[in-house]
């Protein structure tokens, strides 16, 4: 019985570590400033072009601002 509890505990620990690592990796992916010429994307609502890192993504489409993302969603 105690083995089962230990297994559950280890599973939970592994889950938390994995979750923490993936969250840190995601933050690192967003954070670095673009080094090479950046890909430009067009806003799906108004068509304005902007760097991919500054765009907002929703359902595979890119938007220039939160307002346009919301407008397109509704
Ligand atoms: Zn827009």
Describe the protein:
With 74 residues, the chain is an alpha+beta fold. It folds into 2 domains: 1-32; 35-74, no CATH class. The protein is built from 2 helices and 4 strands, in the order H-E-E-E-E-H. The strands form 2 sheets. A two-stranded antiparallel sheet has the order 1-2. Strands 3-4 form a two-stranded antiparallel ribbon. It is elongated. The N and C termini lie far apart (52 Å). Bound molecules: zinc ion. Zinc ion (ZN) is lined by residues 43, 45-46, 48, 63-65, 68. The site of zinc ion has 8 residues, from loops.
Task: Write out key terms for the chains shown.
16% strand, binds zinc ion, elongated, 74 residues, alpha+beta, 2 domains
- Estimated share of beta-strand residues: 15-25%
| Helix and strand run | HEEEEH
| Alpha carbon gap, first and last residue | 52 Å
Any low-confidence stretches, pLDDT <50, length ≥5?
A: none
Question: What form results from the Cα inertia axes?
Answer: elongated
**What is bound: which ligands?**
zinc ion
Which percent range fits the helix content?
40-55%
Strand order of the largest sheet: 1-2
How would you concisely characterize the structure shown here?
The model has no long low-confidence stretch (mean pLDDT 88). With 74 residues, the chain is α+β, with helices and mostly antiparallel strands.
Task: Show the helix and strand layout.
Blueprint: H1 2-30, E1 40-42, E2 49-51, E3 56-58, E4 61-63, H2 66-73
The site of zinc ion (ZN) has 8 residues, from loops.
């Amino acid at each position: 019985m105690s083995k089962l509890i230990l297994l559950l505990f280890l599973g939970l620990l592994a889950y938390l570590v994995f979750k923490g690592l993936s969250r840190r990796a995601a933050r690192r992916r967003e954070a670095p400033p673009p080094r090479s010429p950046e890909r430009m994307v067009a806003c799906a609502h108004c068509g304005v072009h902007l760097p991919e890192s500054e765009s907002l993504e929703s359902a595979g489409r890119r938007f220039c601002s939160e307002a346009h993302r919301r407008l397109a969603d509704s």
